[in-house]
Amino acid sequence: xxxxxxxxxxxxxxxxxxxxxxxxxxxxxxxxxxxxxxxxxxxxxxxxxxxxxxxxxxxxxxxxxxxxxxxxxxxxxxxxxxxxxxxxxxxxxxxxxxxxxxxxx
Length: 105
Prior knowledge:
Layout: E1 4-12, H1 17-32, E2 37-45, E3 48-58, H2 61-67, H3 71-80, E4 84-93
Antiparallel strand pairs: 1-3, 1-4, 2-3
Helix pairs in contact: 1-3
């Protein structure tokens, strides 16, 4: 199986970015414990005060899909949903090699 990566942005409602960041911090702690999660990084944009970027690397597409089924993750998603104005760019990636990945193919 090939690794599965995502890089995407979430746009918070004006003034809600810091609240959204708290929920994403919770999510980061949750997914870090899940099988197959190699990288899950929350980033802010210095040029857009309402935009947050999330970079994820999973051992496989299946591990990513499974990560969305747990009760804790679902609850975090539900708490974050009202804070989100829209989803921005989203790119699917095939991570190959680099610092932070558990091994090389």
